[in-house]
Amino acid sequence: ETGMMTAILLVVSYFLLRKTKQHTDRVIKLYQQFENKMAMAGFSKQNSESARNFANRINSSRDDLVNEVNQITSLFNKLRYGAYPPSYLYEKFEPAVKQFKPKRIR
To answer: 12: which residues sit within 8 A by CB, 6+ positions away?
Structure first.
């Protein structure tokens, strides 16, 4: 009986960890879409720059993007680094990134 419980626990753990990894991968891909959109608008994220520092740099020169950039950055940090982020955060994050359309200012 102990062996059966161990086997069941291993299978359940595998699927939970797999789902978490897929979720994390999707969050990173969405944030990379945000980075690409910002690069097209003239702001490339530096490798050593955190998401919050990147947002602060954008916000210092683009008042028109402050709310959207802060929302996307906050959601990303909670989803990426939170222990067990609630699913509603992801439901807000994906459309926020998809609908974000920053214009390049010359």
So the answer is: none
Per-residue pLDDT of 4-59, as tens digits, reads 778 777 766 655 555 555 556 899 999 999 999 999 999 999 999 999 999 999 99
Report the alpha-carbon distance of residue 95 to residue 30 in Å, rounded. 10
How far is residue 51 CA from its own chain's centroid? 9
Contact criterion met (CB below 8 Å) for 85 and 78: yes
DSSP string of 50-97, one letter each residue: -HHHHHHHHHHH-GGGHHHHHHHHHHHHHHHH-SS--HHHHHHHHHHH
Other Cβ atoms less than 10 A from the Cβ of 33: the count is 15
13-31 burial string, b = 16+ CB within 10 Å, else e?
Answer: eeeeeeeeeeeeeebeebb
Distances (CA, A) of 49 to 34, 45, 46: 15, 7, 5
